[in-house]
């Protein structure tokens, strides 16, 4: 999940930062050795100075780089704390993850508070943000991405035919080799959901808590599902919002992006049709959909303002994350329809601003589970999804560097359905990146341990980030009072 939206190539790419049983010999249980935390002021930029005095405190927690060698090299993870101001109501800690993998989470407590996280939740918990291993202030990693590379980040480019998939395979291989060459300290191979779940338990212990609650969005649902499965006796109240469907993202999971865009796009199309006199994109939703394909085909041939078909499709996909982005998306469409061709993009060979986030995304995604290695598999997937999900399927099914990555060090975390009933799965019915099917899958895998709150709403993020009263009330009730619904719930629009 990423909450920043905007125009321009760099912001378009940033917008999509938006996405395990233990290895034999690697302990599932994290050590109980709890360091004494030294709370200090958080790094500059963690909080907006215009919002008033700093509310967060930060500290570092040492964890093993490799849990198979717990007494070996240690790395430091930075965490943040928005402390409860009501000691009589405080019941524990609420660990947060904003998604990615690769998104910074130090500011997540104050961000959610600014978005309306209920006071009852803030009173009930010390709300804990963090940069997970490899991210930001927690032993950051880098593949060395630069602005002039033909690499567009977490989602591969739309492939018009088999030749385009084969071309992207060359890019994917080069990226995998580049990451390996830049991994001089061996840290990339230790970035996995299983290790991050072990880190969560180290953080819990360092905070002096017997149990920890968790609220995760997008990829954070994979991490939360892994924590609840690996440490069921440590996991308190678990909320998983905007679900990728398992403890890992694989080829099938990324292909669901195409499904998600098909399900979510009609909301934007109806919105734009009602505003045809302002934007001129079509008087009906069907006409707006046709306009999408017309613009994509045009800029595939002749880019406008440096935006080609790949970036146009990516920008439109990202705009569906939040209805607040619809106006900007419509403005961009309008400019591309009316603008003159300007040729392809050009960029200097400078470090890419998303280098760290893209590097972590790749490492975790590729280390969690094996991806198909043969190009033909991706060509077949792209051909099928180009027909099934014409808006974006041929991008989401395209080949990624994971096809050429080193083998995972351990199998993915297997969801444990034999544990306490303490998992609330919250899912918008129309979500471009984590479709409704992801929430349904995770709920099915947890069995009687979970309940699904299916929300008749559009966008990425339901609890606090959306405006559905039922989703807000159900989730708050669970976090504060521990009231898990007796059965799955469908929240009507509104």
Automatic annotation (TrEMBL):
Domain AB hydrolase-1 intervals: 93-466
MF term (GO), any: hydrolase activity
Keyword line: Hydrolase, Signal
Family per similarity comment: Belongs to the peptidase S33 family.
Entry protein name: Alpha/beta hydrolase family protein
Biological source species: Tamaricihabitans halophyticus
């Amino acid at each position: 999940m990423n909450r920043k939206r905007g125009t321009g190539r760099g912001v378009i790419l940033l917008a999509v930062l938006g996405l395990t049983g233990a290895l034999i010999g690697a302990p599932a249980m994290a050590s109980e050795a709890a360091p004494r935390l030294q709370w200090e002021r958080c790094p500059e930029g963690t909080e907006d100075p215009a919002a008033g005095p700093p509310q967060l405190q930060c500290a570092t927690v040492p964890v093993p780089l490799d849990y198979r060698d717990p007494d070996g090299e240690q790395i430091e993870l930075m965490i943040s704390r928005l402390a409860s101001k009501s000691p009589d109501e405080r019941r524990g800690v609420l660990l947060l993850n904003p998604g990615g993998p690769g998104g910074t989470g130090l500011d997540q407590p104050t961000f959610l508070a600014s978005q309306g996280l209920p006071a009852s939740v803030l009173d009930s918990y010390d709300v804990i943000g963090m940069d997970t291993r490899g991210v930001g202030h927690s032993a950051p990693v880098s593949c060395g991405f630069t602005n002039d590379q033909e690499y567009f980040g977490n989602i591969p480019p739309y492939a018009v035919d088999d030749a385009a998939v084969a071309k992207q395979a060359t890019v994917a291989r080069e990226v995998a080799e580049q990451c390996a060459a830049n991994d001089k300290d061996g840290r990339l191979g230790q970035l996995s959901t299983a290790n991050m779940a072990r880190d969560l338990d180290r953080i819990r212990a360092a905070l002096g808590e017997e149990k920890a609650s968790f609220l995760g969005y997008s990829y954070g649902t994979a991490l939360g599902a892994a924590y609840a499965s690996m440490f069921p006796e440590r996991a308190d109240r678990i909320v998983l919002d905007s679900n990728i469907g398992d403890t890992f993202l694989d080829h099938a999971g990324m292909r669901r992006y195409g499904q998600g865009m098909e399900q979510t796009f009609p909301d934007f199309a109806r919105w734009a049709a009602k505003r045809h006199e302002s934007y001129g994109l079509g008087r009906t939703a069907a006409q707006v959909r046709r306009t999408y394909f017309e613009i994509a085909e045009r800029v595939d041939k002749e880019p406008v303002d440096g935006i080609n078909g790949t970036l146009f499709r990516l920008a439109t996909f990202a705009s569906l994350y939040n209805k607040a982005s619809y106006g900007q998306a419509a403005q961009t469409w309008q400019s591309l329809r009316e603008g003159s061709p300007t040729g392809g993009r050009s960029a200097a060979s400078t470090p890419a601003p998303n280098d760290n986030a893209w590097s972590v995304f790749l490492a975790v995604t590729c280390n969690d589970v094996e991806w198909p290695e043969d190009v033909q598999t991706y060509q077949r997937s792209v051909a099928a999804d180009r027909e099934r999900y014409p808006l974006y399927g041929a991008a989401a099914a395209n080949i990624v560097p994971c096809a050429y990555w080193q083998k995972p060090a351990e199998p993915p975390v297997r969801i444990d359905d034999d544990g306490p009933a303490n998992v609330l799965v919250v899912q918008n019915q129309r979500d471009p990146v984590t479709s409704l099917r992801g929430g349904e899958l995770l709920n099915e895998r947890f069995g009687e341990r979970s309940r699904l709150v299916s929300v008749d709403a559009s966008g990425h993020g339901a609890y606090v980030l959306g405006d559905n009263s039922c989703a807000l009330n159900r989730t708050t009730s669970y976090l504060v009072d521990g009231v898990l619904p007796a059965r799955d719930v469908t929240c009507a629009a509104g």
